[in-house]
Amino acid sequence: MKKLILLGSTGSIGRQATDVVRRMRSEFKIAGLATNSNLALLKKQVAEFRPEIVSIGSEEGAKDLSAWCRKNGIKSTVVYGLDGLIEVARYRPADLVLSAVVGSIGIKPLFEALNAGTNIALANKEALVVAGDLVMAKAKKKKLAIIPVDSEHSAIFQCMKDEDSRSVEKIILTASGGPFYRSKKKHSEITVADALAHPTWDMGPKITIDSATLMNKGLEAIEAHHLFGVPLKAIEIVIHPQSIVHSMVEFKDKCVLAQLSMPDMRLPIQHALTYPRRYPSALKTLDLAKVQRLEFGRPDFGRFRCLKLALSAGETGGTMPAVMNAANESAVAAFLQGQIVFTAIPKVIEKTMASHKVQKKPDLEEILLADAAARRYAQEIIQQHSI
Ligand SMILES: NC(=O)c1ccc[n+]([C@@H]2O[C@H](COP(=O)([O-])OP(=O)(O)OC[C@H]3O[C@@H](n4cnc5c(N)ncnc54)[C@H](OP(=O)(O)O)[C@@H]3O)[C@@H](O)[C@H]2O)c1
Asked: Is 21 within 8 Å of 28 (Cβ atoms)?
């Protein structure tokens, strides 16, 4: 039986992970849960899975949860805040930490889980974007696995199994294109509701906006570069609106391997949790005759400037991906709160990147400082409406 830790258990990935565990009770024991503010759902999860340790964002939340646990005879240790999140991440014994928090808040818990010697199932792509060199070096040194949960990276991981990474010619990263790939709507007229209406995936709000701007694909290209050791230039982005082909790998002999399945995150989550074994899943069978058409196209870098900015940050390297990511997190939060318009998102990122002096080989502390400075700068631009 695998002992699991779920970071971000109340989010879109976290809830789907608990679905997977619920279907495979004899395979897993949830030892730890961590979340931010959704106390009502966290209580339900604690009642169901009886974790040994559980973390919530605030001290008040922790007091409420502790009293509730006592009343219900539940013996879970309750912790809170970033320290609590880290404590759950490094809780031992555990076999696997699923990191499904959103944003660069996931960096420290990821490092602490690796330091504690636990394998990782990684959904939190921002941690790799921001500190990929350090994370991969740490995992290598500790001889630990980072198993991707992102559907594209799970597909690449499966295509690369038993292959020598030196025989890879390129990675072909597929993208649904988001809600505006074929839309005639001017980007200046896009509302929050328009941007949250993703055509094929039901995800948390931040990644849904990243999908609409195509920033998500830029983040994923950087993520793939770190996970698979392939240069960014050898990662091609292809729009595939049906989201059936989850990504492909072209080898030196021009053979292309692809992974196909219905678009349902429970498959890559289950794959990461049960790896290297495969079990029956809750997915619908892929009926290609019913799907009929699989289309592919090129992304429009002119209309989707966030994609270009992310790739350029990845090429620059050093502290620049952290700065780009921090500016994007600030801009997306401001857009969701109605503080800025959709077209201001790339402007905030571009201005913040332009203001940054890159450090080439930063350590974790320097990365976190660059992240914090970029957030402050982006906030100033947002507050002053100077975009
Ligand atoms: N959703 C998908 O289909 C999908 C696919 C591929 C990759 N990913 C990646 O997976 C990650 C999670 O995405 P999501 O869509 O599941 O996001 P989400 O629905 O917004 O969920 C985020 C989770 O993180 C928790 N969280 C946020 N800040 C936290 C903090 N400071 N301390 C502790 N917990 C915190 C949230 O808690 P509360 O609920 O209490 O706020 C929630 O449980 C992202 O990096 C995303 O890019 C997602």
From this structure: yes
Ligand 1: centre distance to CA 76 (Å):
22
Span 155-168, pLDDT tens digits: 999 999 989 889 99
* Residue 96 identity: L
| Separation of CA 57 and ligand 1 centre (Å) | 13
* Residue 207 CB less than 6 A away from ligand 1: yes
* Rounded CA Rg of the chain: 20
- C-beta of 113 in contact with ligand 1 (< 6 A): no
Q: Which of 235, 257, 238, 215 is nearest to 295 (CA)?
A: 238
Query: What stretches of the chain adopt beta strand conformation (E)?
Result: 2-7, 28-34, 53-56, 77-80, 96-99, 119-122, 146-148, 168-175, 235-239, 245-251, 256-260
- Ligand 1 centre to CA of 295 (Å) is 30
Question: Which residues, 6 or more positions from 148, have their beta carbon under 8 angstroms from its beta carbon?
Answer: 122, 154, 156, 157, 223, 227, 268, 272
pLDDT single digits (tens) 282-323: 999 999 999 999 999 999 999 999 999 999 999 999 999 999
For ligand 1, the distance from its centroid to the CA atom of residue 281, given in whole angstroms, is: 23
C-alpha closest to that of 82 among 51, 102, 56: 56
Domains, the chain, ranges and CATH? 2-144 (3.40.50.720)
User: For the chain, first and last CA: distance in Å?
Assistant: 53
Strand partners, 170: 250
Residues 143 and 280: their CA atoms lie apart, in Å, by: 29
Contacts of 384 (CB under 8 A, 6+ apart): none
